[in-house]
Amino acid sequence: MKATGKASAKASGKASGLALMLSWQRILLTFIASSLMTLLLSFVWQSGLPSLVARVLPVGLLTLLVFGIFEQWPKRMPAWFARWVLQVLGVALIIPLSLILIWVFSTEPGAPPFWMERERLGGFAFLCIVGMFFAPWIALAALVRQKDAFARDQALIFDLERSELERNVQGAKLHLLQAQVAPHFLFNTLANVQALVQTGSPQAPMLLDSLIAYLRAAVPRLQETANTLSDELQLVRAYLDLMHMRMPDRLQFSLHVEADALRLKCPPMTLLTLVENAVKHGIDPSEVGGRIDIHAAVIAGRCRLQVRDTGVGFQASAQGLGTGLATLRARLKLEFSNDAQLHMSELVPHGVCAELEFPAQFLKRQSDVTKHATEQVASS
Questions:
Q1: In the Cβ-directed half-sphere of 167, how many Cα atoms lie within 13 Å?
Q2: Which of the four CATH numbers 2.60.120.340, 3.30.565.60, 3.40.50.620, 3.30.565.10 does domain 201-379 have?
């Protein structure tokens, strides 16, 4: 939830104190409102435009300051009194108070007070009435706009948190499926080793060495979510070497991989699931064994993986219905949504072809660099 906290802070973060009260947006709005008011009053104001500007603009700035002060002070408001009411009342009251100060300080020394002169008193009353009528409405409009912006911010925060929670749920599901994959492969492999040891085969020590090599390649990657196809091929090769030692006369295999495909992002245990499924449900049940051919290529921006076996096929086995393939389909849906396809088809005269396609995404990692343009490994 760390990312969610950062996203929320970013979305909800706003200025406070003087930075909020005197933000450039509010100052610009005050200048625009004051200019419009000055323009409208200039047709009836008899003391000249500079005199009118000297009165309207300071009143507008003081109104802005009072609006901002009551927006943040007091920190706590009684439950029965809304803050916006305090802001509107403050704006309404600052109009006559600020105009009184302006008229007092603009009175020349020795001259009578402005309330003693009918013409000056009339100008004061006119600006008071106009200001007290329009300023609260402008403040209310600003409050409505501010509340709308706050609602949009809250909606954005909610959307960010919801999307982050959805990603966390998807990640948790993916890790759970990977946790199911790990013992599935390990137990199957250990069962194969146990069968060979029980028969007293002289290849048992060599098989254990191959098992250790396989585990060294597999275990560090069980919890990873962004392996490359090059990493996956290391697992496949170690697994097939292990299976070939178990049944040397019944299993042959080859790998045909384009150099460009080695840097492709590949969910861990993906290709290995297809290969293990071919061994378990295709080659192992066959009395004469068979061959497994693995192809990997990048075609039209998509990664295409193909595992072909000459085993017993669909009719003689339950291939395609195992836990491994069911888990793989679920993992692919979580990883690529509906943009990944896994097709199983029967070969003639016997065997199965498993073909997997998903978007081609390249990972730039030094370990993915290869010396060969095309890799082909075969064992007989």
A1: 10
A2: 3.30.565.10
